[in-house]
Every structure is written in structure tokens, then in C-alpha cells.
Amino acid sequence: MTSHPIQLADIEQAAQRIQGHAVETPLLEFHSLNEQCQGRVLIKPEVLQRTGSFKFRGAYNTLASLSPEERVRGVLAFSSGNHAQGVACAARLLGIGATILMPKDAPPLKIRRTREYGAQVVLFDRETEDREAIAATLTAESGAVLVKPYDDPRVMAGQGTLGLEIARQAQALGLRPEVALVPCGGGGLIAGVSVALHSQFPQIAVYAVEPDGFDDTGRSLAAGSRQTLAPGGHSICDAILTAAPGELTFEINRRLLSGALTVTDAEVRFALRWAFENLKLVVEPGGVVGLAALLAGRIALEGRCAVVVLSGGNADPALFAETLLTTD
Amino acid sequence: MTSHPIQLADIEQAAQRIQGHAVETPLLEFHSLNEQCQGRVLIKPEVLQRTGSFKFRGAYNTLASLSPEERVRGVLAFSSGNHAQGVACAARLLGIGATILMPKDAPPLKIRRTREYGAQVVLFDRETEDREAIAATLTAESGAVLVKPYDDPRVMAGQGTLGLEIARQAQALGLRPEVALVPCGGGGLIAGVSVALHSQFPQIAVYAVEPDGFDDTGRSLAAGSRQTLAPGGHSICDAILTAAPGELTFEINRRLLSGALTVTDAEVRFALRWAFENLKLVVEPGGVVGLAALLAGRIALEGRCAVVVLSGGNADPALFAETLLTTD
Description:
2 copies of one chain form a homodimer.
Chain A (H helix, E strand, L loop, with lengths): L7 H11 L9 E2 L1 H7 L2 E6 L9 H10 L3 H6 L1 E4 L3 H13 L3 E6 L4 H9 L3 E5 L6 H12 L2 E2 L6 H20 L6 E5 L4 H13 L4 E7 L4 H8 L23 H10 E7 L1 H15 L9 H7 L9 E6 L6 H10 L2
Helix pairs in contact in A: 1-3, 1-8, 3-5, 3-8, 5-6, 8-9, 9-11, 12-13
């Protein structure tokens, strides 16, 4: 593992940096889910994290690593929502100015929350405007530091703290997870979590779970190199819609992942409702894909112990309500 | 405290009985809630309990205390839902037959779940049929043991285990809660919790929270004796609609409670939605009243540490969806 973009030590340092600022989310077990899956399922509800998703971990670790000069220049991020909130909240805590570029069609709750954390939100049209060009103009004006959503070792190390917690919490229960199901967009979360989990459980099989039509990591794993999807896919999983894996994240994921699974929008909606009824947790579409894969039978536990990461809970109320009503 | 219907020792015994069967729910803290309330708020999310509410604790403790002869006769309970599920699930685990009398207008999810636990569900019409008479007929036929929803020392001791957990978990964080807000119907939960919390934090102020129009415990506390409300009230908090406090529960509550607070349906809906957006927890109307009281400013924390019990999460999907949509 010596050539990985991040090492276990980076994650341990990140854990120290975020301590007292991020929440140590619990590791939960539900009799109903164990029975349903005929195994032992440990839920890591990162919906309970500050800002409602794991993104705060990586954002805080990155911003806390900036030099005094960089802090003065402020930060810039582009994100459809969860990274935006993570960066905005971390920036406020550290007294750093933040500008966030968000698509106009991002869930309204995510836009509102990002503003509430004190960030300056700049909206753009996904169809007609060029995000990179706007970002370039903004950074040229202000000198702001770009905080990438996943392809940055500081971000990946921050997300990896979630894996360290899982390992410690599972060990406290006397358990050794054999499978982990982790939502995957650009791959920063699963890269960090894989490094952490493999350090404690070398035999664990970590699977990326992606929305149908956005299986860039799955295709890249199959091909052995980064693949870019053609545009035009559609999915309700707004938080994890990427066209290609990150360069650094894939460097880790191609070596540590056991494979990738996909789920349909219908399976995601079923899982959202199942989590509502049985886990009493509010999960957003992109955050529930691991559970969706499990409930859809994409992987059979057969008595094994699995960890499922519920990576975010910033569900749009209208979409959530519609999901509860239409599958009634 | 020597003349209380239950003692700390009863709760400690109940804790041993339910161990490994009930979930030790975590004690959660949310930065957003602390900021909102200008204090330190510890959330006890009993929505994560087996069967989705605290009722499993008391039901399991009671059923596990039955003699072999009683077990053979089976159990009977009447309940609009959460006690029903608690008894049905505990009965299944202990191999005891269960019959549950439920009102026809109970939330469909609660009726379905009770059946799924294997109980025989008998529906009756609240308006035209006499629950007590039906129960008397059923017990006369089968000899089944009636499991009361709250006015039984075994039930109260079981619910008290939730208070023991809060005390231990708060102490592990180095905190001494000064206030506790607990949903109150017949008063079994708050009676057990009060005994447990007062044993560890003698100065704590425990408040019953009731729906507007169902403030039987509040009126009884004010009068110094059990008061019965006139019929005709209406509230969405189906789980905690009682006309009078229990005899045994009030014996404890009149001595240990600091007071009672009420919340309106509108405040309950606001809190349901607030919990959805900020805590990512699914709470049912009757379970969220403590949070509703806090958010409505019924009690000012002013830097103090408070515990809020979210007692159940078996929310009807249609009502929940409507709440998300109408307050948008």
C-alpha cells in the first residue's frame, strides 16, 4: 500500500483534526434488517453527521490543513449540495470565506442550507453555462482556493475517518465485517473508507454501489482504467452522479475494491421507504444505494456480517413525500 | 422513595431481562439543535428501538416475568399501535400466543406490523363498540393474561430502562442533564424514566409533554389528584391520547415530575418536519412532543443541558408525507 495517494496515517491525522467538530456517528443494528438479509448488518448512519452527510469530514480536514495565507484568500467549491454544505460549515467554523457554485436545479433544501452556513452561493445553469469557466473567473478575481469534492488526498483522508470509526465500533462489538457496501460517486468516500477498513480487516470485500447509468467506477474497475460515461443518463441520486472516477480515488479503488453494484431508481425509492418504515432514518437517494443493493438481493449475505454506509440524509422533502405516497 | 410502586432495583432487574433483546439506543447530539436552543440537548432516539418505540422494553419485561402457566394461556393487549407491536414482538420471541385488540382507525402501518409479528389482531370500532367488553369476552374464552399498556409495575420498570441508559450515556460524556422532556400518555414511560433519572441526578427537572386537549397528567399534577378529561378532544398524536393518568404511574409522577407542558398539532407537525430536515430521524406525532415543546419555546434552556426522549417512530407514511408537503 506504500504508493497509495493516502495512507492510514493520513486518516489518523484527519481523525485528530476533525475530533470535536465532526460527530462520531454510531454503528447501529436492527433486528428487522438482520432477519430480512439473513445475516448481520451494521448500519453507519452518516445522515447523523454534521451538515447531514459524510462530506463535512473531508471538507473540515481540508480547510483545517490550509495555510494562513490560503485561509485569507477564502475557498471555492462546486457541488450539487452535500460537499457545498460541508465546505460552507467548515469554513464558518474556521473563519474562512466560502463561495459555492451550485447548479440551479440542485435540491432547494441543499441550496438553502448552504446559504444558512454563511457561504456565498452562485447558481449556474447546467445546460447552458460552463461551471469550470465560472469557477476560473471567480478564483481569478478573489484568489480563492478550490476545494475539490473528492480528488484530493486531504478530502479522501477526511472521509476515511468514517472507516476508522466503523472498524473501532465493530471491534468493540466483537465483530469482523466481511462485506462493506459504500455509495460511490467520484469515489472519495469509498477510497478513504477502503484504506481504513483494509488496515483492520484485510479480507473485507468492499463494494462500490452506483446508480444505474452512472456506473463509471464499475466500468472502470472492469476495464482496469478510468472510463468516462457518455452524457444523458438520469437518476434521482443527485449526490453521486459522476461521469468518471477521480484520478487519485481510482488509484486506490482499483486496488482495494472487490467490485461494484448498481441499483435502479425504483430500488432506491423502495429502500428510502424501507429505511423510513424500518430504520426510522431519513436517507437521501444517493445515500441509500448500499441498502438498496442489499434489499434488492444484489449480494447475498448468507450469515455474513456486512457494513452498510448510509452516506447522507439531505433528502428533498417533496421527493421524499412523493416516494412515501406513490409506493403506498 | 420507598413507597413507590417501582424502585430502582426493579428497573435494574428489567435491564438485565431485556438485555440482548432490546436495543441499547444511542444518545445523540446535534450541533444544529444545540444552536437553535442555546443549550446542550441530548436526544434519546427510541425510534431506533425494536418495533420502533420504547414499548418493547416494558412488554418484554412483563412477558419475561410471566409464570410458565401464564405463558401457556397467552396474552391479550389493547392498543392503538405501539404497545401492540411491543407485546406482539415480545410474545413471538418468548413463544407466547398474543391477541391484540386494536381500533379500526389505528394507523394502518401499526396494524400491519402487529400482524407481521404473528399476533392475532382483533379490530373494533371506537365509536360503537366497548373495548373492555370485547377484552372480557376474549379473556374469558382463552384465559389469556391482560398486559396493560402502562399501569403495571413490570411495564413501568421496563420503560425505566431507557432512563438508566440515558444516565449512563450522559455520565460517559461527562454531562449531568438538568432537564428532561418526556412524551406522556398514561405515564408509564415517564414514571419509569423519572425513577431512573432521579436516582442518578436528584436535581433533574422532568417534564411530561402532552398534546393540547389531552393534558390529563398536567391537570392532575395541578390538582394534586388524578383528573379525567371530558371526551371529544382531537389530536394527531395517536400514541399518547389518554383521558386520565394511570393509578400507579401517577403515584410516581405526582412526586417526581416538575410539571407538564402541552403542544398543539401545528407545533407537532413543525417538529416532525424539523426532525426530518435536521436530525434525519423519523418520529411519529406522539413521539416528537418533547422536541416540539423545546422548539416552540415552552421551556428555555439558557445554557442548560436537557434530554429529549423521542419515544416512537411508527409514523403513518401518508400523514408524514402530508406534513412534509403542507409546510413546504
